[in-house]
């Protein structure tokens, strides 16, 4: 291809297997890879700054055109471990929740769970950086990604959003998918799919290359995160988008 396709991905531990192929040089002449946190990546895709991104699925209603172009994703069939509501008190005693600024999908999921599952009416505050230190007393916080592993050691109560969604719907949850904002050549899509799946063959190498002490990465990659975008996750996505549209009155 004459011009490189601009690709963006989240800079979290859970994406390491999905960007492994690119980092090993696969598609180096076709793809330019950028990394950032989820909400920033989403803005890039919406504004057409990139062509493909591993983004929170909550942005789908905001895109005029979208194509899920990989069989691999960030999903969970139950406990996800890295997307949790943290609190010093039980759910019934929470008065305020600080919302993680890094992911639209997780914030949307939390709002759905508060309304439809936990039946809680609390004060929601959009948080800024370093808000975790404010998770005290009756103020809880939604924390995602690598920072959630650190928060797990600090908070008395941990409410896993992947677990709650599964209990409420019986479905897995699709947190992020590889989405293109335009139609791309089928031959490119096939190579892209192969590249994004390469890391799943090399999880041991990825774990050794990313020494981490706050959580067991082997457990995270093999038990918490479910990387295959199967039919059940697609059904979970449909259910999530339906509830999201009802919550925010999206029209599309």
Q: Can you characterise this structure?
A:
With 252 residues, the protein is an alpha/beta fold. It has 2 domains: 127 residues, D-Maltodextrin-Binding Protein, domain 2 (3-Layer(aba) Sandwich), CATH 3.40.190; 87 residues, D-Maltodextrin-Binding Protein, domain 2 (3-Layer(aba) Sandwich). The chain is 36% helix and 24% strand. It contains 9 helices and 11 strands. The strands form 2 sheets. A 6-stranded mixed beta sheet has the order 2-1-3-10-4-11, with helices on both faces. It has a 5-stranded mixed beta sheet with strand order 7-6-8-5-9. α3 packs across α5 and α3 crosses α9. The model has no long low-confidence stretch (mean pLDDT 94).
Number of domains: 2
Name the CATH superfamily classification of the largest domain.
Periplasmic binding protein-like II
In DSSP terms, counting alpha (H) and pi (I) runs of 4 or more, how many helices? 9
Helix content: 25-40%
Write down the Rg.
Answer: 18 Å
Structure at a glance:
By secondary structure, the protein is α/β, with parallel strands linked by helices.
Keywords summarizing the entry:
2 domains; alpha/beta; 252 residues; 11 strands; 6-stranded mixed beta sheet; 36% helix; globular; D-Maltodextrin-Binding Protein, domain 2; 9 helices; 5-stranded mixed beta sheet
